[in-house]
Write a structure and sequence with these properties.
The chain is an alpha/beta fold. It folds into 2 domains: 233 residues, no CATH class; 218 residues, Spore Coat Polysaccharide Biosynthesis Protein SpsA, Chain A (Alpha-Beta Complex), CATH 3.90.550. A hairpin with a 7-residue loop joins β10 and β11.
Length: 591
C-alpha cells in the first residue's frame, strides 16, 4: 500500500484511478480485455524500480563505500581464499590461483585453497608444482560423487569450510570463482570495511569482466546491477554478495551452518539469511576482481537461465518438507525473492504474446469516455518514465541506458521454458542447469566448444535458427507488422484520431511496443553481426607483484572502467521520444 500511494507514483496512481472509474461507468463489457490488463500491468515493473529508488534513499548508509586500504605487514587478520572449480580449463584455474597467491598481503597471513570438484589429476599436479613457489597454496578434492546435488558449489565450499584441517581458524574466508582473478590489493581493499564494522558479515565486490565484446549488446557486464542496484542496496546494508570476490566473516558463517545447500544460488540464499539475522552486507563498486563471461550467445542464454531457475527455486523454501534445510524464520523472505522474479518473467512472456494480438485484433484497448483526459494523463505518465530513466542513466555516467533493467526482456521465453522444465520435469534440483558446480569456462559446458572453424555463413544459419533467435524474430516481426496494420486500419476507415488513440497510439502501448521491438532485435543483431570476444591470452600481461603470475593489462582494465552507453541511444533514436510525446499531447489537447 505504501508503494501505491508513494509520492513518486502520482502519475501512475491518478491514471489508474481514473481508468478504474471509467471502466466501472462504461456499460460495454468488451472493453476490459486481457490486452488492456497487460498494458496496465507491464509498466508496473518500471514503477517498482522507481519505488525502490526512493525507498533506498531513506537508508542510513553511504551508497558507495569509501576507498580504504589496509597498510602495514604486522598484526593483519588471517584469511583463507577458496577457489572452487569443476572442469574449467586448466590454464584458467591456474591463472586465478597464481593471481590469488600474488596478492599484496603477507604470505604467512593468508592461504589459497583450490577446491576441485572435477577431481582433475592434471590440476592436482599443477598445483603441487606451484606450491614450490607459493607454500601457502594447497589443493583439495572431495573425490568422485554420484549425486549432482552433493556436487553443488555450496557443498564444495562447505567441504573446504568444515572438512579441511588447519592449524588455526581464519578470521575471514574469501571466495573467488575459478574464472575470476583478484586484483593485487583485493584483501587490503576489502578487509578495512570488515575490521571497522562489527555488524558487517560480507563485503562483496562488483563484477568486472575483461573479455566483453564491443558494445556489450547482451549486457553481460551486469552494468545495471553494478551502477544502480549495488548503491541502492548498500544504503540499506542489504546487498547481495555474488559468489565470487567476496570476503565473509568466518565466525558468522559458522553460526549460519556454512553455505546453504538449498538450490544452486547459495550466494542469494546466504545473503538473505544473513541480512534477516541482523547482519549487514555491503558491496564495493571499485574494481577488485576481473572475470570472464561466456563467449557465445547461447552460453549467455543458458547461464542466465540457470541463474533464473535457481532464484525462482527459492519459492520452494515455503515447502514444509523435511528435506528443506532452511530455518523456518528465513523462508518467507526467500520465497518472496523467488516469487517476484518468477512474476516478472511471466509478465514479460505474456506481454510478448498479447501485445501483437491486441494490435491485430482491431479492438479498442481503452474506453472512449473522457478519452482526451485519459490521453493527457497517459502522456504525463509515460513521460515521467522516460525522464526518470534518462536522468538515472545520466547519473551513472551512462554506464547504463534507458530501461536498462529490461535488457533481458528478449530472454523471457527461454527463461519461461527453463522454469517450466524445472518445475515439471526436474523438480528435485536446479543443479541440472547444468549438473554440478560448472561455471563459465568449464569444458563441460557444451556452449564453450570451439566454433572458430565454422564459416560465417554456416554460423549465421546455425544462429538464426537457434530457439531464442527464432522466437524473438517472430516477436519482432509480429509486433512490427501489427503496428503497421493497426495504423493502416485506423486511417483506411477514415477514422478520427480517437480511434488511433484507443489502439496503437495509446502511450503505454507505444512504450511496450518500443520495449518489445528493441529487446527482440538484440538476438537478431547478434546473429547478423556476430559477437567478437577479445582473445583472453592477449588481454593478459605480467602481474604487477609476481613474474610467475598474469593479470589483465592496464589498457584492458581502463577500457572496462571507461565503457559508456550512447546518451541518446543507438543512432540517436531517443531524440524521437520527446517529439512523439509532444505530438501526442498536441493532438490530445488541440486537434
Amino acid at each position: 500500500m505504501s508503494y501505491f500511494f508513494s509520492k513518486h507514483n502520482i502519475p501512475h496512481v491518478v491514471l489508474f484511478l481514473c481508468r478504474v472509474r471509467i471502466y466501472v461507468s462504461v456499460s460495454s463489457s468488451g472493453l476490459m480485455t486481457p490486452h488492456t490488463t497487460v498494458a496496465d500491468i507491464s509498466p508496473d515493473e518500471c514503477c517498482g524500480e522507481q519505488f525502490f529508488t526512493f525507498t533506498s534513499a531513506k537508508g542510513e548508509l553511504a551508497p558507495h563505500l569509501p576507498r580504504l586500504r589496509l597498510v602495514g605487514q604486522n598484526d593483519l587478520p588471517l584469511v583463507e581464499i577458496f577457489v572452487p572449480c569443476c572442469g574449467e580449463s586448466l590454464d584458467i584455474i591456474l591463472d586465478t590461483a597464481r593471481a590469488a597467491c600474488a596478492i599484496d598481503y603477507p604470505t604467512a597471513r593468508f592461504s589459497v585453497t583450490v577446491l576441485d570438484d572435477g577431481n582433475s589429476a592434471a590440476l592436482h599436479k599443477a598445483i603441487a608444482d606451484l606450491c614450490k613457489i607459493w607454500p601457502n597454496l594447497s589443493y583439495h578434492s572431495r573425490g568422485v560423487k554420484p549425486n549432482a546435488k552433493v556436487f553443488a558449489k555450496a557443498g564444495n565450499l562447505n567441504y573446504g569450510l568444515f572438512e579441511i584441517k588447519r592449524p588455526f581458524p581464519p578470521e575471514f574466508i574469501a571466495v573467488m570463482d575459478a574464472d575470476c582473478m583478484p586484483t593485487p590489493d583485493f584483501l587490503r581493499a576489502t578487509l578495512p570495511h570488515m575490521l571497522t564494522r562489527s555488524k558487517l558479515a560480507i563485503v562483496g565486490s562488483a563484477q568486472y569482466y575483461y573479455n566483453l565484446p564491443d558494445g556489450d549488446p547482451l549486457d553481460q557486464a551486469l552494468d545495471y546491477y553494478s551502477a544502480i542496484k549495488i548503491p541502492q542496496l548498500n544504503r540499506l546494508g542489504k546487498s547481495f554478495a555474488s559468489g565470487s570476490g567476496c570476503v565473509i566473516r568466518y565466525s558468522t558463517l559458522l553460526k549460519t551452518g556454512g553455505f546453504p545447500t538449498f538450490g544452486s544460488v547459495e550466494d542469494v540464499t546466504l545473503s538473505s539469511i544473513l541480512t534477516q539475522s541482523g547482519n549487514q552486507i555491503l558491496v564495493l563498486t571499485e574494481m577488485v576482481q576481473l572475470g570472464l563471461v561466456p563467449e557465445s550467445f547461447e552460453g549467455h542464454v543458458l547461464q542466465t537461465s540457470r541463474h533464473k531457475v535457481g532464484v525462482s527455486e527459492q519459492i520452494l523454501t515455503w515447502s514444509p518438507s523435511t528435506s528443506n534445510t532452511i530455518p523456518p524464520r528465513y523462508r518467507p523472505a526467500l520465497g518472496w525473492i523467488g516469487l517476484s522474479l518468477t512474476w516478472k518473467i511471466v509478465v514479460r512472456f505474456i506481454t510478448n504474446i498479447f501485445i501483437p494480438l491486441a494490435l491485430a485484433s482491431g479492438q479498442q484497448l481503452v474506453p472512449t469516455t473522457l478519452l482526451r483526459q485519459q490521453m493527457v494523463l497517459a502522456v504525463l505518465y509515460i513521460s515521467s518514465f522516460w525522464l526518470y530513466e534518462w536522468l538515472r542513466a545520466a547519473h551513472t555516467g551512462f554506464r547504463v541506458s534507458t530501461f536498462h533493467h529490461l535488457r533481458e526482456w528478449f530472454l523471457a521465453t527461454r527463461h519461461m521454458y527453463a522454469l517450466l522444465h524445472f518445475y515439471l520435469f526436474s523438480f528435485q534440483s536446479s543443479s541440472k542447469w547444468p549438473a554440478r558446480s560448472v561455471v563459465t569456462g568449464s569444458t563441460q559446458n557444451p556452449w564453450n566448444l570451439p566454433t572458430a572453424s565454422q564459416s560465417q555463413a554456416k554460423r549465421f544459419h546455425q544462429d538464426i535458427f537457434a530457439p531464442t533467435v527464432l522466437i524473438n524474430m517472430i516477436y519482432f516481426m509480429g509486433t512490427f507488422v501489427t503496428i503497421g496494420y493497426s495504423i493502416w486500419s485506423c486511417y483506411s476507415e477514415n477514422s478520427d484520431n480517437d480511434k488511433l488513440f484507443t489502439r496503437v497510439a495509446w502511450p503505454p502501448m507505444l512504450l511496450l511496443c518500443y520495449l518489445i521491438l528493441t529487446s527482440s532485435f538484440t538476438p537478431l543483431r547478434c546473429s547478423i553481426w556476430p559477437l567478437r570476444y577479445p582473445n583472453r591470452k592477449l588481454a593478459l600481461g605480467s602481474h604487477p607483484n609476481h613474474a610467475q603470475a598474469v593479470f589483465p593489462k592496464e589498457d584492458v582494465r581502463l577500457a572496462v572502467m571507461k565503457r559508456q552507453r550512447p546518451p541518446l541511444g543507438e543512432f540517436y533514436h531517443l531524440v524521437l521520444v520527446p517529439v512523439v510525446l509532444a505530438a501526442l499531447m498536441y493532438f490530445a489537447l488541440v486537434v
